[in-house]
Design goal:
Elements: H1 2-26, H2 30-58, H3 60-79, H4 87-115, H5 119-150, H6 154-157, H7 159-172, H8 186-209, H9 214-236, H10 250-279, H11 285-313, H12 315-335, H13 346-369, H14 376-416, H15 424-434, H16 439-442, H17 449-455, H18 458-487
Helix pairs in contact: 1-2, 1-4, 1-5, 1-7, 1-10, 2-3, 2-4, 2-8, 2-14, 3-4, 3-7, 4-14, 5-11, 5-13, 8-9, 8-14, 10-11, 10-13, 10-14, 10-18, 11-12, 11-13, 12-13, 12-18, 13-14, 14-15, 14-18
Length: 513
C-alpha cells in the first residue's frame, strides 16, 4: 500500500519540478500550467468520496488495482501529449483522469492499513505509512530534476515501473477484502463533483476573468449552492455517499478543519517553492528538487514523532504543536525569500515541513478512528476530499495572488526601465504569465520596449518574483494559524479499541481481522 500511494504522492511533486520545461516546450502560459496542476488536484477532491465508498462496497483490493491501472494509463497519455493548440486540453483531460485514478487508490489503500492495525497501534503505523510515502515523495523532486534534464515526459512515464511494483506487491499481500452490501449513491457523487468543480474553477480563473466579472462569482457561488444541495440530499437519503452525521463528533470536525487549513499550505508549497527556486534562485530543475528536500527533511523527521504522541497522548497535543511550528516556519521562510540564497532559507523550510509532518498523521488517524460503523474507506474519502479540495483552492487562490502581485511589481520595473506608463501594465501582464522558468529563457525577444527593458532588468525580475512570492508564503502561514485555532475545538478525547465496531463482510468475501 505504501508503494501504491507513493505513486500518487510522487506525482504531486515531480510535475512541479517539470512545470517550467513543460510550459516552454508546449507554449503554455503560467495560468495554463496552474490549470494543468489543478486538474489533478480537483479530480482528486471531486472523486475521493466516491473512491472511498467504492472501496467499501466493491472491496479494497479491487479498487486499489482498478485505480492503479487508471492512474498509470493516464500517466502514459500525459507523457505522450502532442504539441500545438491541443496540448493544454490533452493535458487537462488526462491529468484529470490521473486524479480519478488516485482518488480510487488512496482511500482504498489507506483503509487497508487502518483495517489491519488496532487503534492503539495506528498512530505509529500510519506515521510510518506517511513517512515512507512522504520519503518516496521527497525523491520526486530529485528524480524530476534528473528526468527533466532528459525529457519532461519521463516524469509521467516513471509511474509505469512504480505501478508494476505496486500491482505485484498487492497480488502477493494476503489481506482480507471485506465488502459492504450497500448501493452506490450516484446522485450524491455527481453533486459533490459538480459543486467542487464549479467552486474551484471560479477561484482558479479569477485572475484571468477578473474578480469583478459575474462569471467568476457565478462559478464560485454556483459551486457553493450545489454543495448545499448535496448536503441536504445526503441528509435525506438512506444510503448516502457521505454519512454527514459523523460531523456531529466534535473531534472529527476539528480534525477535518485542521487538515483543510494545513493542506492549503502543504500541497501548494511544493509547486510555488519549485518555481521560485528556478526563477529567483536561478536553480536548475535538479537543484530545485534539492531545495524542496529541505521541506521534506523536516516533514520526515517530525512525522514519526507525531505518531508516537498520538498513541500516548492523543491527537490534540501533536496538532497544536505542529500548527504552531508550521505557522512560524512559513512566516520566517516568507521573510527570507527576497534574500536570494537557499543557504539562508533552509532552516525555515525545514521548520515548516516539521510542522506539517507533526500534525498530518495524528489529525488523519484520529479522524479515521471515529468512523461510523468502521467504514474506513468512507471516512478516509471524507477527510481526503477535504484535503484535496483545500489543495485545489490553495493552488487557485495563491496562484491568483502571485500573478496579481507579480504584474504590479513588473509594471514598476518596466516603467523604471523606460517603458511608457500606458503600455507597462499590459506588457507586465504578459511577462508575468510567461515567467515560470528561468527569466533569461522566458523574456520577450526582439527590439520592442518590453524585450529591451527586460534584458537589462533580469536581476530586478528575479527579485520581483521573490517579492511576489512573499504574500503567498505569508498566506500559508495564515492558513497554519487558522489550523491552530481549529485545534482549540478538539475536546482531547481518544478512541479505544473497544469503542470501534468492526465492519461486516459480505458473504463469501472473507472475515475482517
Amino acid at each position: 500500500m505504501v508503494f501504491t500511494v507513493a505513486m500518487v504522492f510522487v506525482d504531486q511533486t515531480i510535475v512541479s519540478i517539470a512545470a517550467p520545461s513543460i510550459t516552454e516546450e508546449l507554449g503554455l502560459s503560467a495560468s495554463a500550467m496552474q490549470r494543468v496542476v489543478n486538474a489533478y488536484l480537483l479530480a482528486l477532491a471531486a472523486f475521493f468520496a466516491l473512491g472511498g465508498r467504492l472501496a467499501d462496497i466493491l472491496g479494497h483490493r479491487r479498487v486499489v488495482v482498478a485505480g492503479t491501472l487508471v492512474f498509470v494509463a493516464s500517466s502514459v497519455l500525459c507523457g505522450s501529449v502532442p504539441g500545438g493548440a491541443a496540448a493544454e486540453t490533452w493535458l487537462l483531460v488526462f491529468r484529470a483522469t490521473q486524479g480519478l485514478g488516485a482518488a480510487l487508490v488512496f482511500p482504498a489503500a489507506l483503509a487497508v492499513v487502518v483495517d489491519v492495525f488496532p487503534v492503539g497501534e495506528r498512530g505509529r503505523a500510519l506515521a510510518l505509512f506517511y513517512v515512507l510515502a512522504g520519503g518516496l515523495t521527497a525523491l520526486g523532486p530529485l528524480f524530476g530534476g534528473w528526468l527533466t534534464a532528459w525529457t519532461w515526459r519521463a516524469v509521467f512515464w516513471i509511474n509505469v515501473p512504480v505501478a508494476l511494483v505496486a500491482l505485484v506487491l498487492t497480488a502477493l499481500a494476503h489481506f482480507p477484502d471485506s465488502r459492504r452490501r450497500e448501493r452506490l449513491d450516484a446522485p450524491g457523487a455527481l453533486l459533490v463533483a459538480a459543486g467542487l468543480g464549479l467552486n474551484v474553477l471560479g477561484l482558479q480563473q479569477a485572475a484571468a476573468w477578473g474578480w469583478g466579472r459575474p462569471l467568476t462569482w457565478a462559478c464560485i457561488g454556483g459551486g457553493i449552492l450545489v454543495l448545499v444541495v448535496f448536503c441536504r440530499y445526503e441528509l435525506r437519503t438512506t444510503e448516502p455517499l457521505i454519512r454527514l452525521r459523523v460531523f456531529r463528533d466534535r473531534a472529527f470536525t476539528a480534525d477535518t478543519l485542521v487538515l483543510f487549513f494545513s493542506t492549503l499550505a502543504f500541497v501548494p508549497v511544493m509547486f510555488f517553492a519549485s518555481v521560485y527556486a528556478q526563477v529567483s534562485l536561478s536553480a536548475s530543475p535538479d537543484q530545485a528538487g534539492l531545495y524542496i528536500l529541505y521541506f521534506f527533511a523536516g516533514f520526515g523527521l517530525a512525522a514519526q514523532w507525531g505518531g508516537r504522541i498520538l498513541d500516548k497522548r492523543g491527537a490534540r497535543p501533536a496538532m497544536r504543536l505542529g500548527t504552531a511550528l508550521g505557522c512560524a516556519g512559513f512566516a520566517l521562510w516568507a521573510s527570507k525569500l527576497t534574500v536570494l540564497s537557499a543557504h539562508d532559507q533552509w532552516p525555515y523550510a525545514c521548520l515548516a515541513g516539521a510542522g506539517i509532518g507533526l500534525l498530518l498523521s495524528p489529525a488523519a488517524t484520529d479522524a479515521v478512528n471515529r468512523a461510523i460503523g468502521a467504514s474506513y474507506g468512507e471516512v478516509t474519502g471524507v477527510t481526503q476530499t477535504v484535503r484535496n479540495y483545500a489543495a485545489a483552492v490553495g493552488m487557485a487562490v495563491f496562484g491568483t495572488l502571485l500573478t496579481h502581485v507579480m504584474t504590479s511589481r513588473v509594471t514598476q520595473t518596466l516603467v523604471a526601465a523606460g517603458t511608457p506608463p500606458d503600455r507597462a501594465p499590459g506588457l507586465a501582464r504578459t511577462i508575468a504569465e510567461r515567467i515560470t522558468g528561468h527569466p533569461d529563457d522566458r523574456l520577450p525577444t526582439g527590439t520592442g520596449p518590453a524585450a529591451t527593458a527586460m534584458r537589462h532588468s533580469i536581476q530586478d525580475i528575479r527579485l520581483d518574483f521573490a517579492e511576489a512570492n512573499r504574500p503567498v508564503f505569508y498566506g500559508m502561514a495564515v492558513a497554519m494559524a487558522l489550523a491552530y485555532l481549529c485545534t482549540l475545538l478538539h475536546p482531547g478525547t481518544r478512541v479505544a479499541d473497544e469503542d470501534r465496531p468492526r465492519p461486516a463482510a459480505a458473504p463469501g468475501t472473507g472475515t475482517p481481522p
